[in-house]
Amino acid sequence: MAFLDYCLKHRIYIAKFPPYLTHQLQPLDVSLFRLLATYYSAELNKWIIKHHGLIYFSKRDFYPCFKKAWQAAFKELNIQSSWTKTGLNPFNPFIVLNKLH
């Protein structure tokens, strides 16, 4: 109960998704991870071109590429859009229901 009280006090809303629909209801899955993958792929391509096609990619090389991709994907507008695409905010259950038909 303390957990629910904490959430209520801090305006954190708990959502329980139906089984087998999380890929359509979770904003991260619907939009943001796809954007992250696209931007990360672009950063890797830039890295490969910059290093003349050398394939060795160390842990040190990973973070700068990932950071740029993360910053491009997880912008406020993209986050808000992902909630809209799932029909969670503003609430619109027909977005998902129409996909089920």
Protein architecture, described:
The protein is mainly alpha-helical and 101 residues long. It has one domain (21-100). It is built from six helices and no strands. The model has no long low-confidence stretch (mean pLDDT 92). This is DDE-1 domain-containing protein.
Largest sheet: none
Mean pLDDT: 92
Rounded to the nearest angstrom, the radius of gyration is 18 Å
The structural class is: mainly alpha
What is the overall number of helices?
6
Please give the oligomerization state of what you see: single chain
**Order of helices and strands, N to C?**
HHHHHH
User: Which regions contain 5 or more consecutive residues with pLDDT less than 50?
Assistant: none
Please indicate the percent range of residues in DSSP E strands (runs of 2 or more): under 5%
Count of structural domains: 1
InterPro entries: DDE_SF_endonuclease_dom
Protein name: DDE-1 domain-containing protein
GO molecular function: nucleic acid binding
